[in-house]
Amino acid sequence: HADAALYHAKDKGRNNYQFYSVSLSAKNPELLTLEKNLRYALERAELTVYYQPRVNITTGQITGMEALLRWQHPEMGLVAPNVFIPLAEESGLIVPIGEWVLQTACNQNKAWQDAGLPPLMMAVNLSLKQFRQPNLVETIARILEQTGLEAQFLELEITETTAIEDLNFTRTVLQELEQMGVYISIDDFGTGHSSLSRLQMLPLHNLKIDRSFIQDLTTDVKVAHIIKAIVSLGQSLGLRLTAEGVEKEEELEFLKSINCEDVQGFLFYRPLTVQKATEILYSQSTKL
Ligand code: C2E
Ligand code: MG
Ligand code: MG
Ligand code: MG
């Protein structure tokens, strides 16, 4: 039963894509069906992008949005990315799907600017397979040109695991993107067993502390110390720090006290439909 398969996939956890080792769909008929449906999702316009605001911790102003993919399945409803991104990765569908997300998100950011709203950063997630596409840099350049968005308003998020898999390769690609003017962010930082001393060789702009740390922040004093150390070391390397998954006032207060710059989390906003995001941007801009 499809729901059971979804539940099972979710259960395996968001940072545990490696568990889907050999072939997900070969082992699980429900996932195979899902993968087949995913093939048509793009052409049937079942995919959609939600936007989650990133907020400046001291002013509360929205400084950026993260594009988060959703699949509006005709029978199953809204399917979460943790369920279908691994399938898209495995089947290679992530490449056209990811390109569509980039195009959609850049287009949206440009549309907000054209509407006279204050310029925002648009963050887009890149999976490992996307990052390894030989024409990634040209694809990004083409999308910026087609949408008319300036490179400085696009931020690409790669996970720590993607970044460290082949540091020399990563550095080459990131240097080209950096030259283009695109911002680079390390996502889910702290979960990939790397260290900032290894990442410092990369041209990075932003470090996103993984939600799992924020979750344990108020119950485990050691975690608070770790977050404090990440923020301080990151800042001394010239990086901007974003805390992911902030849900409680207490967490926010702590993050303020250690001068973390940005926060993203349900305490402020959940991922929003484009309509809702647009409304919020307008209401924020009239308050300025
Ligand atoms: P991510 O890039 O780390 O995105 C942040 C995730 O944390 C999002 O989940 C967001 O909804 C969730 N989140 C944000 N604040 C909170 C909070 O306060 N509490 C809780 N419980 N969750 C919060 P989402 O949208 O389900 O996406 C999951 C992952 O799927 C993303 O993690 C990213 O790795 C991947 N993903 C999403 N969209 C894309 C995409 O277009 N391309 C690729 N390659 N991956 C994507
Ligand atoms: Mg992300
Ligand atoms: Mg993350
Ligand atoms: Mg993640």
Task: Name the helix and strand elements from N-terminus to C-terminus, one letter apiece.
Answer: HHHEEEHHEHHEHHEHEHHEHEH
The distinct ligands, each listed once, are:
ligand C2E, magnesium ion
**Arrangement of strands in the largest sheet:** 1-2-4-5-6-7-8-9
Distance between the termini: 51 Å
Structural class: alpha/beta
Mean pLDDT equals: 90
Number of helices: 14
Contiguous uncertain segments of 5+ residues: 1-21
Total count of strands:
9
Outline type = globular
Helix share bin: 40-55%
Residue share in β-strands: 15-25%
Taking the sheet with the most strands, its summary is: 8 strands, mixed, barrel
Protein name: EAL domain-containing protein
Organism: Komarekiella delphini-convector SJRDD-AB1
Domain EAL: 31-285
Account of the protein in words:
It comes from Komarekiella delphini-convector SJRDD-AB1. This is EAL domain-containing protein. This protein has 288 residues and is of the alpha/beta class. The protein contains 14 helices and nine strands. An eight-stranded mixed β-barrel has the order 1-2-4-5-6-7-8-9, surrounded by four helices. The longest helix has 21 residues. It is globular, with a radius of gyration of 19 Å. The termini are far apart. The N terminus is likely disordered. The structure holds ligand C2E and magnesium ion (3 copies). The site of ligand C2E has 27 residues, from strand 2, helix 4, helix 5 and strand 6. Ligand C2E binds next to strand 2, helix 4, helix 5 and strand 6.
Short key terms for the protein model shown above:
14 helices; globular; binds magnesium ion; eight-stranded mixed beta barrel; alpha/beta; disordered N terminus
